[in-house]
Design brief:
Length: 190
């Protein structure tokens, strides 16, 4: 749910992008509630999810891994027996890979440069033999929640001055302060 909270924070901060998502959900769902089986029809929702994973990876550093054989990685020699950790946060903020990485821009996953179905781009769910078995389920649950929150309510931050306040000192990335938002039922907006 960490990713869902960060996504709602960014959407509450950015009414224009929130409205893009809302209009896309309305176009696909109409008066019906968003469900898991139609998520593939809402590409902007997928882009919001993946961009949130990129900027606010739930796990900023992959726990230590043991290197079984001598390996070359990005020009570095890593001898067998080494223990390595991968800084996902650093990778996801790499200006050589991501254009304007400090900005939250879901559109980057819609322009064809980054494939939103490639979960390995952000490494949020690991990869290879150690890919998270719950990656698809987590994606479905989070996207459905984000979609329903935007479908049912208009969001804005309670305090416009609220900063991101990212805590990456733990095993998971968290907001230092809980999300405080003002929500207004979209039914009342009609």
């Amino acid at each position: 749910m960490i990713t869902t909270e960060w996504a709602m924070y960014e959407l509450a901060k950015d009414p224009e992008r929130q409205n893009i998502l809302y209009r896309e959900i309305q176009h696909v769902c109409g008066a019906n509630k968003i469900t898991e089986d139609i998520l593939y029809q809402i590409p902007y929702l997928s882009a919001v999810f993946h961009e949130t994973l990129r900027k606010y990876s739930p796990v900023p550093i992959i726990p230590l891994r043991y290197v079984h054989e001598d390996t070359q990685l990005q020009g570095y020699s890593i001898p067998a027996g080494s223990e390595i950790a991968i800084n996902i946060y650093g990778c996801n903020m790499d200006k050589d890979v991501w254009e304007s990485p400090e900005e939250w821009k879901p559109e980057r996953f819609l322009n064809g440069k980054y494939d939103p179905m490639d979960l390995h781009k952000t490494m949020a769910f690991g990869g290879g033999k150690r890919v998270c078995a719950g990656a698809l389920q987590a994606s479905l649950i989070s996207c459905t929640a984000i979609g329903r929150f935007v479908q049912e309510f208009e969001w804005r931050l309670k305090d416009d001055g609220e900063g991101e306040n990212v805590d990456t000192r733990r095993l998971t990335t968290q907001k230092l302060h809980p999300l405080q938002a003002i929500i207004k039922s979209r039914n009342l907006l009609c």
